[in-house]
Amino acid sequence: MNKPIDIQLLQPTERFADYQANIAARIDRGAEAKAHDGGARVGISRPHESAALHVAGEATYIDDIPELRGTLHCALGLSPVANGRLQGMDLDVLRALPGVVAVLSAEDIPGSNDCGSIVHDDPILCSGEIRYLGQPVFAVIAQTREVARRVAARAKEVLTIDAAPPVLTPQDAHAKGQYVVPPMHLLRSESTPGGDEQAAVRTAIAAAPHRLKDTLEVGGQEQFYLEGQISYAIPKEGGGMHVHCSTQHPTEMQHLVAHALHLNANEVHVECRRMGGGFGGKESQSGLFACVAAVAAAKLKRPVKLRLDRDDDFMVTGRRHCFWYEYEVGYDDEGRLLGAEITMVSRAGHSADLSGPVMTRALCHFDNAYWLPEVSIHGYSGKTNTQSNTAFRGFGGPQGAIAVENILDTVARRLGRDPLEVRRINFYGKDERNVTPYAQVVTDNIVHELVDQIEVSSDYKARRDAIAAYNAKSPVLKRGIALAPLKFGISFNVPHFNQAGALVHVYNDGSVLVNHGGTEMGQGLNTKVAQVVAHELGVSFECVRATATDTTKVANTSATAASTGADLNGKAAQDAARQIRERLAACAAARHGGDAADVRFANDKVDVAGRTLSFATVVGEAYLDRVQLWSDGFYSTPGLSWNRDTLKGRPFFYFAYGAAVSEVAVDTLTGEWKLLRADILHDAGKSLNPAIDIGQVEGAFIQGMGWLTTEELVWHPQSGKLTTHAPSTYKIPTANDCPPVFNVKLFEGPNFEDSIHRSKAVGEPPLLLPFSVFFAIRDAVSAAGGHKVDPPLRAPATSEAILNAITAVQAGG
Ligand code: MTE
Ligand code: HPA
Ligand code: MOS
């Protein structure tokens, strides 16, 4: 699939040579040289640490953990109504059914009935106010899962609800002024810093040679992790609770369960070896299931497992926020954006969840790779009677950036220019034109050389001409091409989350165990962290084993999110391993002579005072010398600051960049389309593991393509029922949707910042690469109208949406 591209095409451009010279000057090579070289365990394409277990079906997910004797099964009774008040529940009817052990409601929660992650506005079970269709109202605990599910499905018969009409769309919520968090405003004026910036932005737009005013709609997206939400709660002695939970955030699960059970954090133990995918959907929303399972287990004093089936997972949990935008921009004859004002309204759902930080990230990504001298961005998180929307790969970043990309695409068409040229002219500069709307200075800009490279390697210009020639002769099938760049800010936009801890144990046979606060969801975090530890100790990868994330080992962890897993936990594990290495070096030098600073660890060997010993020998000697062979490690990202009121500061440690070129063919009679070729150049810094990073890039590209094309969420306009709640009606991409030509490369160049081995976070940024697919489709649709009319294409660009847009351009607007 990943065909090598012609090496000729990859000759560095002149700008790239400049870039290399520049970066060489900026990175202190002296310090790098002194750093430990552990026989290069990093920068190597190793298979995922669990690859063999994955393909053999032997990797243990929560539902594979052998069940303890007496385990009971739970299913949730869901509200059949989207808005209203619960008047009564006849749960005794259900309690009397065979196989049912208990039916629990909000009253049975001994502590607080809340699983809100930031704002405490999220009931575990309904306590009167019906907020969305699918809201958990009661929990059935039965001898078997089948009985629990069958009984829970009778919710409609036993609930009496006073129904009210639901508010479903962000526009409706905005019209009513109902939000889950206060509105946010991000303003910056180059001309009037600190003055009336709003007025300055309006003036800049009004004074511009051209103006564009429009609206845009972009849909949400279901995480569709292959392993659904699941928790298995096991009561422990003295009222303690052990929860196996498929979660990106074990510490938060610990806190939520402790609050629900009225326990201290030290009485709750949460563990997760791996998830079958999280994609943000298990950052906060695993909480409800952990709490229900724990409440039931505590009440019945038996182990209780709660595993959702796919439909319930769709009906209960939230997903990527859909956005609605209204904007006005002013631009010059070459397409430079001189002023921009945009209002973004998200569908937050019934509670705050992570909607505030998601909107913050959306506001901070409207700039994408472009300098906006006069900009005013308004964010509203609309409160609706739908599932509470949450984190999903990109976390609002994609929703922010696609708006400016759509604007530039339109500006280019209006001016009759190639969109790539209009994008380029707006790029952030290197030493000027480099301040973001949130006042962070872009100091690591590589977008110019990266885009230059992919323009050449994808043969963009020649293919654009070939497509124009093809379209001129092809009345029904139209082709389109687009190049889309990305810049993505790395760090949690809540500064204190940017910390991590790790534990490294060296056993006296020389084997190594690493435990850290991050979670494994398939992204290869444990592989990367184990590589870092192996590198630091100079041992082979096979000597290092990573264990389950566990709140009894590393405390107060952050969610594995914001793509920071390897950055944070890699640094923390390196810190732990380095301390052990230094103790081993001191011990070896004391025994064998020489200076501890000269002891070298590489390839499972230790060079000390002219002798070469095995790592295990040195470890064994250190044990006899009573040296501590395990260590903790800690890391906090330096230099971050954030003012929540003004939305200014330095929220990001650095930026990751990338660009993709996509070519599509669209059938103008049916709206069907095909991705013919995609070229990607993505910046993972000095990659810790190129194979894993390329996998992340390819996965994010295809996943994001699904978001922008086939994945459509439809809530019934009257009942508020999510009608697309299963793969039969909700279409995610498959392996067959990969383009036949798929050239994926990592940009060569280290992180300017001192990140773990100069790598860059890679989990989320490439989700923006498939913008190129959307704009290629838009280009093909535009061709159907002779490029005279701007296609009114919404996302997702389903065949239906494409056909509507074609109809519009052919009718002349
Ligand atoms: N890759 C796989 N295979 N499965 C996942 O669930 N989640 C994504 C990304 N890549 C995900 C994934 C999201 S949303 C994030 S934030 C990052 O991985 C988290 O992991 P990292 O910080 O270790 O990259
Ligand atoms: N990403 C993911 N989760 C978060 C973030 C973020 O930027 N900020 C707060 N929680
Ligand atoms: Mo990722 S959306 O930050 O879990």
Automatic annotation (TrEMBL):
Coiled coil: none annotated. Its cofactor is Mo-molybdopterin; [2Fe-2S] cluster; FAD; Mo-molybdopterin cytosine dinucleotide. Gene3D superfamilies: Aldehyde oxidase/xanthine dehydrogenase, a/b hammerhead (3.90.1170.50), Aldehyde oxidase/xanthine dehydrogenase, molybdopterin binding domain (3.30.365.10). Keywords: 2Fe-2S, Iron, Iron-sulfur, Metal-binding, Molybdenum, Oxidoreductase. GO terms for molecular function: 2 iron, 2 sulfur cluster binding; iron ion binding; molybdenum ion binding; xanthine dehydrogenase activity. It comes from the Bacteria. Residues 56-165 form the Aldehyde oxidase/xanthine dehydrogenase a/b hammerhead domain. It holds the Pfam family Ald_Xan_dh_C. Its EC number is 1.17.1.4. Belongs to the xanthine dehydrogenase family. This is Xanthine dehydrogenase molybdopterin binding subunit.
